[in-house]
Amino acid sequence: MISGWNKRYSSILKEFKYSEKEDKRSAIILDKIIKKSNTSQKISRLVKDKTVLVIGSGPSLSKSISILKNLKKSVLIAADSSIKPLVENGIIPDIVVTDLDGDQNTLEKISKTKSIFVVHAHGDNLEKLVLSKKFKNCIGTTQSKPFSKIQNFGGFTDGDRSVFLANYFGAKKIILFGMDFGERIGRFSNTKKLDRRTKLKKLKKAKSLLEWLATISKSELFTTSKPIRGFNKITFKELDIIIT
């Protein structure tokens, strides 16, 4: 587990009034569902010393899709709600980071591919965890203490957890797409109008966690989306120079 995470997790529990007990309960259930495998080694081989593209579902994703179509040879890690538009455009991510809130039909569709699923257990998705049985290549994660088959790479939302994952497995470079962390919620997000305030609060927390990660990460960090402290802001035209 990344050094300093417990302090951040305690802050999340307090700020969002989450239950650590329920998080642990969910993780125990997921641990019973998923099978022991060498999936972590597969992730390591994919990510270590590579340039990794992390894709979120922010407003800038729409403009990013045409670019991503030409970057299929790069390692792609996609956060849950970005999956549907990516797959609809013929882009199959190497790794999917999900708490199972995304489009279930799309998740089941790509479960038949070589995509690796990093399924997150928390107190609010207990009933959805059974879907993990459909994923051939799957590991489980938690925000609390890791145990047995359940790991903790850091991160809060699917988007920033994807970045923490790439960092944990030693990516040489991490480039963000569709990760804006602004006052607008992307149209690909599954957020309902009533949940808008909570979603924006989560995005603010996720951004602060990435800014903290930037102070300790050994990866080179870039974003094609809105500026994030510690990440180099780049344009699509600069990608050819950065991606090697």
Brief rundown of the structure:
This protein is an alpha/beta fold and 244 residues long.
Descriptive notes:
- This protein has 244 residues and is α/β, with parallel strands linked by helices.
- The chain has one domain: sialyltransferase cstii, chain A, CATH 3.90.1480.
- The mean pLDDT is 91.
- α7 packs parallel to α8.
- It is globular and about 45 Å long.
- The protein is 37% helix and 15% strand.
- Strands 6-5-4-3-2-1-7-8-9 form a 9-stranded parallel β-sheet.
Whole-angstrom Rg:
16 Å
Overall geometric form: globular
Bin the helical content: 25-40%
Number of domains: 1
Helix and strand pattern: HHHEHEHEHEEEHEHEEH
Spatial ordering of strands, largest sheet: 6-5-4-3-2-1-7-8-9
Name the structural class: alpha/beta
Distance between the termini: 29 Å
Specify the biggest β-sheet: 9 strands, parallel
Q: What's the tally of helices? A: 9
Question: What is the CATH architecture assignment?
Answer: Alpha-Beta Complex
Strand content: 5-15%
Uncertain residue ranges = none
The CATH topology turns out to be sialyltransferase cstii, chain A
Strands, count: 9
Query: What is the mean pLDDT?
Result: 91
The CATH class turns out to be: Alpha Beta
